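Kindly draft a polypeptide, keeping tokens residue-aligned:

***
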Amino acid sequence: MQDKDDIHPDAATAPGYLANHAARAFNRGVDAALKPHGLTMSLIGPLLLLSWKGPLLQRDLVRSSAVRQPAMVALLDRLETMSLIARSPSQSDRRASVVELTQAGREAARIGGEALVAGNAKGLEGFSPEETADLVALLGRLIVNLDRS
């Protein structure tokens, strides 16, 4: 956590600020673990989604993630260049592409998943199982409240 003199006193007790700060710290740690493998947090998102759901249409990858269409196209282009995914024309819609993991992509997804698990474990060091469950529930409620329009 930042030194208390580095942030405004109101921010130091603001759940939104603290959640954002925790997310940045988590992402830095996971990115550091992924870097030796040539991966980043942004790259493992689609890999993990494909690992979980199997081959998907490119548009379904966009719908199932927080990444917008142009950014997803750029990510998929990069993943394809890295030989981590393969795209092929859809049998049911000639305008659509099916995206699937290659063997190297499955390995990258495994590495990414392990980095995320390790990052969460590091963040939860010293937490009891009850505290972990409470934190997850409270963050879930915070997200629901903030997502409400």
